[in-house]
Amino acid sequence: MAGGSVSECKEYLFKVLVIGELGVGKTSIIKRYVHQLFSQHYRATIGVDFALKVINWDSKTLVRLQLWDIAGQERFGNMTRVYYKEAVGAFVVFDVTRGSTFEAVSKWKHDLDSKVKLANGSPIPSVLLANKCDQKKESFNSKVLMDSFCKETGFLGWFETSAKDNINVDEAAHFLVDNILANDKGLPYEESNGDRIKLDQETVAAESKPGCC
Amino acid sequence: MAAEDLPSEFDVVILGTGLAESVAAAAFSRVGQRVLHVDRRSYYAANWASFTFNGLLNWIQQYHVNELQDWSSLLEDGEEVIYLSNPDTASIKNLQVFCFTSEEDEKEEEASSSTPTNAAEDHNINADEEAVKESSETESAGNTVTNLLVAIDCIISEHSILYNPCNSPENVPDTARVSKTGSYFYLRLMYSRGSLVDLLIKSNVSRYAEFKNVTRILTYRQGKVEQVPCSRADVFASRQLSVVEKRKLMRFLTSCMEETEEQMAYHGRPYSEFLRDQQLGDNLEHFILHSIAMVTEHTLTEEGLASTRNFLQCLGRYGNTPFLFPVYGLGEIPQCFCRMCAVFGGIYCLRHSVSCLLVDKDTNRCKAVIDSRGQRISCSHFVVEEGYVGPERKRVATPPRFISRAVLITDSSVLSSNSDQQVSLVTIPPIAAGCAAVRMVELSSSTMTCMPGTYLVHLTCQSSGSAYEDLSPLVSRIFCTPDSPDQGNTQNCPSVLWCLYFNITDGSGLETEGHDLPSNVYMCSGPDGGLSHENAIKQAEAIFSKILPDEDFCPPAPNPEDIIYDGDATASAEGEDKEGEDKEGEKENQDKLEEAVLTEETVQTATATSTLPSG
Lengths: 213, 615
Ligand SMILES: Cc1cc2nc3c(=O)[nH]c(=O)nc-3n(C[C@H](O)[C@H](O)[C@H](O)COP(=O)(O)OP(=O)(O)OC[C@H]3O[C@@H](n4cnc5c(N)ncnc54)[C@H](O)[C@@H]3O)c2cc1C
Ligand SMILES: Nc1nc2c(ncn2[C@@H]2O[C@H](COP(=O)(O)OP(=O)(O)O)[C@@H](O)[C@H]2O)c(=O)[nH]1
Ligand SMILES: [Mg+2]
What we know:
The structure holds two protein chains of two kinds. By secondary structure, chain A is of the alpha/beta class. Chain A is globular and about 50 Å long. Chain B is an alpha+beta fold. Among the domains of chain B are: 191 residues, FAD/NAD(P)-binding domain (3-Layer(bba) Sandwich), CATH 3.50.50; 83 residues, Orthogonal Bundle (Guanine Nucleotide Dissociation Inhibitor, domain 1). Chain B has 17 helices and 22 strands. In chain B, α11 crosses α13. Chain B is globular. The two termini of chain B are 43 Å apart. Chains A and B meet through β3 and α2 of A and α7, β9, α8, α14 and β13 of B. The site of guanosine-5'-diphosphate (GDP) has 15 residues of chain A, from α1. Chain B: Keywords: Cytoplasm, GTPase activation.
């Protein structure tokens, strides 16, 4: 999903998914990262597919990051393919205070890998977030265990995060974007999907497209 | 993915995730109604679904018996129960699968895969005796191209077919050559204009969908596949047409855009007669009747002209032909509406059904439903896919109509060209008197539906017999199968590697009103044979305006890209932004639409192919 370039500056648009069980803090992490906000009680996000974060990556690179929250489909894990479509990265979130949410991580990862792939056929880069680390109890899995879990399950890495105390949220995002950019060098999006049509961009190409024979 | 209890009260409960139900779900949720949307299947989009090849094999394989449970203990005073049934039982029948692979490939496959499987065994379905016999005949003919490996003939009438995600995919038949990427099942095209496209644009649901244009339109005539010229440029470049024909065609297509007195004089008479009297000649008559209007010899002039105009108006909107193909199949479209519903707070559960409705005897209204886990859920309205409603509750004016379908995987295109990435629509007039016209779509690997080097072909017609009876004679003429008449002379025609035949209920033949149902229960029908999908959108809109006559139907959703928070104007900004966005979005869309109309007034020429009156 790379964009065009203006003079020397390259602009990218990345769709990143934020998935995991209900109540693990997905919406909180997005709010923290994009809006620098945290609230114990806010109403569910209604009517918004994703939050947009614009990152001045370096002097030559602008990244527009779409963070897709999972809306009302999370409760039973039945995501439409539409949600996964064209994603280039993902965060899988669990709640360190609830063991069951960690157990669901591999199910989410499996669902993710079965529904979307990079153009070259490999799984999209994903990062595991151990959220609510501000409430961490002693018993939380050791780092060694987490590292090997990530290796087995196919995560690039993991971060202990807190949306509440703003711990590691920026770092995790930076880590993921770094990996997405590395992938993107290989395959410009436009090239592979050039002839696809979006309905709201009609007729632009009707004449310029090659004819049927 | 935790299984927890659902809230016990909703405004609208919707059962079935087909197009009409999904559009209704999005519309209700969009204006703030609390929506619960469930489907007993494990996949979205009901009879509109697209499957991977493995998913399709699973769909064919899985049986699920619907057990009636007694939930009468959950009844309150003054209530009675209406039990619902299983939607797949009635809507699909005569399913037959044939797998042909070449002997050479078989050897390769044996070398590469350690477990060549016999699908007939794996599927626990008896192989059809006759088909097996055919296979030995083919072998004795010494044909190197095909060898019938498997024939499964099962009639699905008492069981549902269910894709079971817990079943391991290991025992998939030896289809390495044909599967891989996935071949999609319910392939359907859509016209680039009409209610569905308008709604996608108006509601902003289009942001979830991507399309490709059908690249060429072909027709089958006198045993040959020919290309139909599709744009003004095509007409002039065409080598099949003489200069005189070219002029005549351009003149005709320009003139038929407006209603003339001459045309009026033919109202009530066949379109074919009108065309004959235009002295266009056989070639042009064929193109216009079968490929542009896509009607039959008997279609009336007014209807034929309307179809011709519709074709011409759709032409050039997004490309060279009037047809769009959703990337990954039409099954994506209902899911786009489901996503919209979820984004506005709708709750989704698959593998979850409604077993029965609780009806207040006095008011004849459905007060609550009991879901498949035995939970009582109150609702003000209940919307249901037609298949869930038992036949005893339906008012059936005419016997249900069926569509015959065939899905083939082939090794080459029916008309090779310099590009192997064509998406072709082929209109095939009735091959004999009394036969139906057939619409065929051939997809190349560019559509993400089949492996490079293979083609996915869908054939559709109105049923008169089983799908196999209706379509296999044509398949064996156009393609090379063990049934093909002249085995010696098949080097030019594509070989069929795998094929599937089945019949499915024709949604256009189903009444949605006047059934023996509570007054707040609304029924939606499944897909019909047509390309316009008007039916589903109209049903959803009608249900919506009956329940909420004063609300807007699917107003544009705000564009999240435009909602930029920069730290201070946050939390509450959401609601406000939405209001503002709505109006702007709407205006923008309208502007775009008008622009499109303006750029299109020049009539281009075209010809397409396809049939099935949607009446
Ligand atoms: C309608 C549709 C839309 C799609 N849209 C997109 C998209 O937008 N973007 C994208 O990148 N990809 C998309 N895909 C592709 C899809 O997400 C996967 O990438 C693709 O199906 C994987 O193909 P594969 O060859 O690896 O098959 P596999 O992953 O080997 O198998 C896929 C199929 O195997 C079967 N299967 C797998 N596991 C099980 C199990 N546990 N139990 C039973 N059966 C099982 C199922 O039938 C499944 O459909 C789409 C696919 C479909 C069908
Ligand atoms: N202590 C603490 N609470 C959090 C954190 N992140 C989220 N929460 C709380 O967890 C609850 C669920 O969060 P939410 O973002 O709605 O989860 P979602 O369902 O995954 O979107 C809310 O009450 C949040 O305030 C965190 O990092 N620390
Ligand atoms: Mg949330």
